[in-house]
Amino acid sequence: MENLETRLWATAVGAARNAGMSFTVPCSRNLRDLVRAGVAVMRRSARTGEADQESADKSLDRLVAEMVRVTRGLGESPVAGSGKTNIRETALVHAKEICPLWPFG
């Protein structure tokens, strides 16, 4: 399942990067925990096939898109030097309001 966690984490990072953003360390920890829990749900329900992985990717894309929307709504500014805007834990908390998104809640 480690590969699935890695795949889903790459989905989240890529979605943030495509929006010109990155996660703060505390936010990335919380999001990684959510990904880990989602993988556990997938494993417990024996839903780890390719179609299930694609569904989890889409759900995570949607969650990160909501985090990006919330971050923009908060008016976060790009970090000097990196040019990327940080997505903070607050955005994750707000984005979880669109859940349940299988397998993340």
Could you write a compact summary of the structure shown?
The chain has 105 residues and is mostly helical.
Can you offer a commentary on this structure?
There is one protein chain. The protein is mostly helical. The protein is built from four helices and two strands; from the N terminus they run αβααβα. Strands 1-2 form a two-stranded parallel ribbon. α1 packs across α2, α1 packs parallel to α3 and α3 crosses α4. The longest helix has 24 residues. The protein is elongated, with a radius of gyration of 14 Å. The protein starts with a helix and ends in a 10-residue tail after the last helix. The model has no long low-confidence stretch (mean pLDDT 92).
Described by the principal axes of the CA atoms, the overall outline is elongated
- The arrangement of helices and strands along the chain is HEHHEH
Total number of helices? 4
Which regions have little confidence, pLDDT < 50, spanning 5+ residues?
A: none
Most strands sheet:
2 strands, parallel
Radius of gyration: 14 Å
Secondary-structure-derived class: mainly alpha
**How many runs of DSSP E, i.e. beta strands?**
2
Trace the largest sheet across and list its strands.
1-2
Q: How far is the N terminus from the C terminus? A: 18 Å
Overview features:
mainly alpha; two-stranded parallel sheet; 105 residues; 2 strands
Strand and helix layout:
Blueprint (H helix, E strand, L loop, with lengths): L1 H17 L2 E3 L1 H20 L5 H24 L11 E3 L1 H7 L10
Parallel strand pairs: 1-2
